[in-house]
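Workshop exercise sheet. Pairs work together: one partner reads the sequence aloud, the other fills in the structure field after running the prediction. Swap roles for the next sheet.
Pair: D.N. / O.F.
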Amino acid sequence: MMKYISTRGNAPELNFEEVLLTGLADDGGLYVPKDVPQFSQAEIESWRDLPYAELAHKIILPFVEGCVDSADLKKILDEVYASFDHKAVAPLQQLDHNEYVLELFHGPTLAFKDFALQTLGRLLDYVLERRHEKVVIMGATSGDTGSAAIEGTKTCRNVDIFILHPHNKVSAVQRRQMTTVEGDNIYNIAIEGNFDQAQDMIKASFADKSFLKGERKLVAVNSINWARIMSQIVYYFYSSLNLGGPLRPMAYSVPTGNFGDIFAGYMAKKMGLPIEQLIIATNSNDVLHRLMSKNQYEVHELLHTITPSMDIAVSSNFERLLFDLYDRDGQALAELMTRMNAKTDVVALAEDKLAKARELFDSYACDEDTTVATMQEVYAESGYMLDPHTAIGVKAARTVRRNNSIPMITLGTAHPVKFEEAVQRAGFDVPALPHHLKDLMERAERLDVLPADLAAVQKFVAEKTFK
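Structure field:
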C-alpha cells in the first residue's frame, strides 16, 4: 500500500484515502509519497499506443494502491475523460519546428484543472460512499480552480463545497462558470480582498477546524491535495509518448503560480520520464523567478494582471520541491518554512540546494505588454490564438530554452475565451464560447460577498453546513 509522509516530518503516515480527505498535514506540511513509483524506459515505451484514460490508469494506480480498486479506478477515469470535447483529451498543437502547445483546455470548464478536479470529485464520492461520511470542501481560486472543483463535485452526494474568489478580480467567464452552476451543495463566496487573503483563510481553516464542531471533515481541492498533482503527472507522459519519448528527452515550459502543475512534471521525471528542462513561467508576481535567478525569497505585494490564474504571491507547492532539495529532512524544511512564511525578510536557500534545483529548472517572468506581444506574434506566425497564461509559457520557452534539438512543449493551460481583456488588448475578437457554454452569460448567478475576515467566512460555512 502506498504511504504518504509530511514535508515537515512531524505528522502521521497516511494512505491515499486518508490523504485525499486530509489536505494539510497536522504539522502544517504537505503530503508526498513516501516512495515514488518507478517505471523503466521499456515499460514507458510499451504505453505508446494507449488512449489517454488507459495511460492515466497505469500511472495513477500505484498512488492509490490499497485504497481504490483497479477496476473502479478504470471506470472513474473512463468517465472523466469521456466528458472532454476532444477525443485525444490532451492534443498537441505545433507552433514551429520542435515547438508545441499541449492543449489542456478541452475539459468541461476549459482549463487544465479539469484533469485533476474531475478525477478528484469522483474519487471523493467513491471513498465517502464507502465510509458513509459527508465532508466540507473549502477552496480558494484565482480563477480556474473554483469552476473546475464545482464542476467536478456538483453531483457528489456527500459534499458541501465552498469556493472563495477575490471579488471583481476574476474574469466574467471564470466567475460565471462558478456562480451559475445549480446545486444545493454549492456556495460561491466573493471575498473583498485578494487571492492570497482567500488562500490564507483556507489554510487557517485547516489549521483550526473547530468551526465545524468536529462533525465534518474539511477537504482541500487546491493543489495542496495530492490527488491534484497525481492526475497532472499523466499528461507529461502522454505528450512525451506522442513525440517519441521515452527514447528522446523533452523540455516543458509551464505557466505556474502555485507550482502544482510544474511539480507534476518534476514527479514525472522522478518516475522515469526523460525530461531535460522544466521552465517556471510566471507573470509580474514573480516570487519563484526571483528565487531561482537571484536566490532571494521575498514576498511582494500581490499585483493584479491580465493573467489572474497566476496572481499568487506565495507558491504553496514549492514546499514539495524544497523537501527533496533538503534531502527529505522534515525538521530542516520546517525551520526553512517558518522563515519563509514569516514574510518579514529575504530568505536565501543553501547554495548547494539551489544548484540542485537549477540542474532541471529555469525560470522567466513576463510583464503584461510582453504577454500581449507574444499572443500577437504567435497569431501572426501560425494563426493560433493563445490564452495569456499560455503566451507567458511560450515566451519563457523561447527565451530560456537550453536545447533546440529536443521538443519544447508549453502547457496550454486555458482557452482564450476565458480572458476577454487580454484577447481584446491583443487586438483580437473574443472567440465564441464552446457549445456547452454558449448561454453562459445569460444564466442566473448565485454568490455571497463577504469581507476578507476569517470569522465571517467560517460563520457562513458553519451556518450553511448545519442548516
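Discussion prompt: The two ends are 39 Å apart (CA to CA). What would you look at next?
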